[in-house]
Amino acid sequence: MLHLLYILAFTILAFMAVGNLIRNLIVFSFDRERTYPTNSSPINNQGKYGYYSSKKQFVPHPELLDSAGNLIKEPLLVMRSINVEDARQHLDALYEASPGRKSENSEEA
């Protein structure tokens, strides 16, 4: 009997959670379409905190700005393509130059 009570309670909680999820998705979709007035400060005339509209004002990520605050036009990461043999040679050179490799050679001799 106690098992049925647990199943019933968790079923009700699951339905409430799914209903809450659907309700939040609907509210957020309507809230996304709404436009809010933008002010120069986050506090408007009534003393309440206002919202900033993402559609009217574009604020770039700080990593996309240089030291003067201008938008960077060049790519942030440039990768040089190399073939497989060059990559193997670089990895082999790193492996041969590693400290653990030298101690293994001295133990074998």
- How many individual helices? 3
Total E-strand runs: 0
Gyration radius from CA atoms, angstroms:
30 Å
Shape: flat
Report the portion of residues in β strands. under 5%
Mean pLDDT: 77
What is the succession of H and E elements? HHH
Q: How would you sum up the major sheet?
A: none
Instruction: List the domain count as a whole number.
Output: 2
Poorly predicted runs are: 44-54
Helix content: 40-55%
Query: N-to-C terminal Cα separation, in Å?
Result: 74 Å
Query: What class, by secondary structure content?
Result: mainly alpha
Write a concise keyword list for the protein shown above.
flat; transmembrane helix; 109 residues; Phage_Syn9_Gp224; DUF2973 domain-containing protein; mainly alpha; membrane; 2 domains; transmembrane; 0% strand
Brief description of this entry?
The chain is mainly alpha-helical. It has two domains: 2-78, no CATH class; 79-109. Helices cover 51% and strands 0% of the residues.
Describe the structure.
- The chain has 109 residues and is mostly helical.
- The chain has two domains: 2-78, no CATH class; 79-109.
- It has three helices and no strands.
- It has helices spanning 2-33, 84-97, 99-108.
- It is flat and about 70 Å long.
- The model is unreliable at 44-54 (pLDDT under 50).
